[in-house]
Amino acid sequence: MKKIGIITLFIFCGFFCFSQIINNDTIFVHYFEKSPFSSTEAGASKGLEIDVLNDYLLWLKTTKKTTLVPKYVGYRDFEQFYISVKNASKNTIGLGSVTINPEKIKEIEFTCPYLKNVAFCITNGNAPDIKAKTQPEIIKALGIMTALTVTNTTLNKYTTELKKTYLPDLKIMAQTDATKILNDIAKNVLYFGYVDAVTFWSFVKNNPGKFVKNQKQLMQAKEEYGFILPKTNVHKASFNEFFTGFKKTNNYSLTLEKHLGSYMGQIMAVK
């Protein structure tokens, strides 16, 4: 009887937790403005992450008979975005092209990954090419440069690893976002930095006159993106259930192709 009671309690708790989002409630969608992930255009919220989130809301409506009204809040500063989600109410989800990171799990929750992350080491187009991943080659190419980075990101981790392993005297300068890093690198041959592949792809496409390049020897492809949630939240389990099926659909592939193009969509899709 005790075992049956415990099972009943778990079933009730599961139902109760989900029942917290089955009313016609508001879901607060905080997003970091970075195209093509999430951005504001003509007063509307758009982007790859926004489309995935909308598919999640449609799934809730059709599968769980749950209607949620999204309230979008955009942020231009990553740190402000991150803190806003960390301290938000339980009915909040954060879209910020955030890499799933064990350190961050101490402060926030992640959904399952919705996209693979590939990071490029970018230099000015006039900088020398790194021909091999060896200390002499890296020092010759980057030794007198300053690394630009966004703090509290995996990209910053790659920068500090590069300093520790190959460039002990490397100077590191913090910037607010990856687009500013790319603009600064395009203007100054003595700057370099890590940015995610999507940001680099978008920047090159939209700025054909700015001469930057990817140092392929230093490329990183170890991470995945997840949406973030406050520690107390009501969406992690239901989003993960939704995405398990969604990633196998044509709609997922078409969403990636729409925002990333065919090649990038294929290499960054979660299988």
Please characterize this protein's 3D structure:
With 271 residues, the protein is an alpha/beta fold. The chain has 2 domains: 22-115 and 224-268, Periplasmic binding protein-like II (D-Maltodextrin-Binding Protein, domain 2), CATH 3.40.190.10; 117-222, 3-Layer(aba) Sandwich (D-Maltodextrin-Binding Protein, domain 2). It is built from 10 helices and 12 strands. The protein has helices spanning 2-19, 48-63, 78-86, 135-142, 154-165, 178-187, 197-206, 236-246, 250-260, 262-268, and strands spanning 25-32, 39-41, 44-46, 68-75, 92-99, 109-110, 115-124, 146-149, 171-174, 191-196, 212-214, 220-229. Strands 1, 4, 5, 6, 7, 8, 9, 10, 11 and 12 form a 10-stranded mixed sheet that branches. A two-stranded antiparallel sheet has the order 2-3. A hairpin with a 2-residue loop joins strand 2 (39-41) and strand 3 (44-46). Helix 9 (250-260) crosses helix 10 (262-268). The protein is elongated and about 60 Å long. Residues 1-17 have low confidence and may be disordered.
List the helices and strands and how they pair.
Blueprint (H helix, E strand, L loop, with lengths): L1 H18 L5 E8 L6 E3 L2 E3 L1 H16 L4 E8 L2 H9 L5 E8 L9 E2 L4 E10 L10 H8 L3 E4 L4 H12 L5 E4 L3 H10 L3 E6 H10 L5 E3 L5 E10 L6 H11 L3 H11 L1 H7 L3
Parallel strand pairs: 1-4, 1-5, 8-9, 8-10
Antiparallel strand pairs: 2-3, 5-12, 6-12, 7-10, 7-11, 7-12
Helices and strands, in order, run as HEEEHEHEEEHEHEHEHEEHHH
Chain oligomer state: single chain
CATH T-level fold name of the largest domain: D-Maltodextrin-Binding Protein, domain 2
User: What is the CA-based Rg, rounded?
Assistant: 21 Å
Gap from first CA to last CA: 42 Å
Helix content: 40-55%
Question: Main sheet, how many strands, which sense, barrel?
Answer: 10 strands, mixed
According to CATH, the homologous superfamily of the largest domain is Periplasmic binding protein-like II
Question: What's the architecture of the largest domain in CATH terms?
Answer: 3-Layer(aba) Sandwich
**Structure class:** alpha/beta
Strand content: 25-35%
Mean pLDDT: 90
User: What's the β-strand tally?
Assistant: 12
